[in-house]
Amino acid sequence: MRCWACSMLTGNTAWPKPAVPTTSTSSKLPPPKIRPCARWPRPWQSSWTRTRRRPGRYAPACLPAFPASSWCWPGRPCKPCCTRRAIRTSRSWPSATACSSNSRPGCWRRWTSGTALPATTSRPRWNWSRTCRPAGAANCRRPCPRAFSNRPGASWSWRKTARNRTCATPTSCACSPPCATGCARATCTWPRRINMPILSSYLIGPFEWQQVKGELCAQLNLPPVTTDRLTQRLQELQELLAPMQQLLEAGGDVRLEDGELVVGRVSAEEVPAGAQALQQEISRRLPVVDLTDILVEVNGWLGFPDQLPGLEHAPRGDGHDTRLLAGVLALGCNIPLTDMARSTGLPYQSLWWTAANYLRDDTLKAANTLLVNEHHRQWLAAYWGRGTFSSSDGQRFAVSGKVRNARSLPTYFGTGRGVTMQTHSSDQYAQYGSKVVPATLRDATIVLDEIVDNQTELAIVEHTTDTAGYSDIIFALFDLLGLYFCPRMRDLADQKLYKIRGEDWTYPDLKFTGTLNPDYIRRHWDELLRLAGSIKSGRVTASLFIRKLQAYPRQNHLTYVLQAYGQLIKTNFILRYLQSQPLRRRIHAQLNKGEELHALRAWLWFGSEGVIRRKQQEEQAEAARCLTLLTNCVVLWNTVYMQEALQQLQAEGYPVDETHFEYLSPSRYEHINRLGKYSFENAAQVDPQHRRPLRRP
């Protein structure tokens, strides 16, 4: 004898079923003549979760929320699963006739104890199930889930039938043509619950936005009539079309071959012989120095430990700066504090206490800002750039143990896992930002955070990345924030370009296969400005909002309008990128500077075999900040002594050409000793057999 639910799945209606209450809500349901099914889980197991997620393993797909063996009859106490789901979390019962309005298919609900639900109009605040009986599917007893939440900023979205408090399990017929009455092949469809906060809750409120709109638009360098920005971008596209067609017809490094776009490789700029000789002369004059001496000297120049206040303002004991520099060196070089305490002779407890109380993400960022500003004021740094152009790239490090934000990436970690340290480098070789993210996260998601949160004297207006650092949304956000985004994009021949709807323009023989509607962007222009103002004012970070956009349903119009505007900006950039070889060369040169700094960071990160053993993301962020602090200390120290070397060469009568200064680099480290000094003089007291005494426990 099979159970009643199993027989229902086969369409056998001969088995007895529970009676359905019609109008009276106080009548009791007779106990159905059923018995438990062996395929159902135990009463104390979560049959709801297991049935919903893995219906094929534990139970058929169309079963009640609770197994038959756990149903509670009148006069008997409820089982633990029933008590947890219904009694301990219940406040009121839903109305028994709430689902029968608007001529919808009627629902019948039953309390797991076998009695009908009492009628009430108050809304439940707990998860409850409805056993529906839609029209045309008499054998369906699949439960209808529904939940309510009063959390701030939370919005529960349901299908229309669920929002109208009607039956949430309509049937879908697989026959062709569809059956007018009950169908044996009819299946139940589940409502989709979306526990997603409303996107507008992350932005500035509508009333507040009208008050601060003028000020924020001025900070974003928008014209008085803000929609003129869109008009300017459309005019730029129109002006770039004719020169692009002429360039393709000329057949230079950018040409068409068999209808395919071919872009020649940008050759590396040759370093003049005079610049190479000058580089060698400077290397011969730079002093050989220990890494610890660099920290001590830079501390004497700036006193950057003053930017590292502790949770307790008064330091404990003497030698506070020494312990602080030792902690920075240990975290920045990935050296365990136990090894640092043994190498320096400092007490481990005091070293650990100093690192835990003073080396935090906010304090390390303030100290790093001081170093970047000091480097920006050096006269040699002005030959490398104006401090307005920057680049970002990720550097991947393997991890050891169970780290929550680590991800598998066989190309870099083999069978292990790792994280990515995202760094932002200026054209003056100073690094003004760093962040630790999962290794599989695209650079485009977090590329804007450090630029918007930049607190240094560097006025960043241009930024470049590799291919992984761009997306249509990133193009739109950069332009809305008044910044110029110029990534190095691969596979330009396969990039999709966009035409303007309603404009009879002549387009080049490229892949202009997309279409943009500028009127659609104008209708939602104020929402774009509101988003840009929220990011600029710090109301929401760009990475957080981009993640919410990616996780939100496709019906969200803000995603579409951002992509549409970003596609326009990307089309303009690709046309400008193809027409300007100096722009391509400049982008490559800036990305090469970032690679040089990555080589310096990898050289400094030598402890523990370069493997991150810090489990918490906060500890990883502190280590990344310390590594950036060490890198900027080395860059600043090299810049200062390179200036001294240049002045000495000029005093000696060496022919110094200022046009060669731009080929110099402060990211060198051949003259730095990172491993300390070892002594082989045995100064310990030994016995005649040259053995020292054991320690006393």
UniProtKB/TrEMBL annotation:
<dbReference type="Pfam" id="PF01526">
    <property type="entry name" value="DDE_Tnp_Tn3"/>
</dbReference>
<protein>
    <submittedName>
        <fullName>Tn3 family transposase</fullName>
    </submittedName>
</protein>
<dbReference type="InterPro" id="IPR002513">
    <property type="entry name" value="Tn3_Tnp_DDE_dom"/>
</dbReference>
<dbReference type="InterPro" id="IPR047653">
    <property type="entry name" value="Tn3-like_transpos"/>
</dbReference>
<dbReference type="GO" id="GO:0003677">
    <property type="term" value="F:DNA binding"/>
</dbReference>
<keyword id="KW-0815">Transposition</keyword>
<dbReference type="GO" id="GO:0004803">
    <property type="term" value="F:transposase activity"/>
</dbReference>
<dbReference type="GO" id="GO:0006313">
    <property type="term" value="P:DNA transposition"/>
</dbReference>
<keyword id="KW-0238">DNA-binding</keyword>
<keyword id="KW-0233">DNA recombination</keyword>
<feature type="domain" description="Tn3 transposase DDE">
    <location>
        <begin position="293"/>
        <end position="678"/>
    </location>
</feature>
<comment type="similarity">
    <text>Belongs to the transposase 7 family.</text>
</comment>
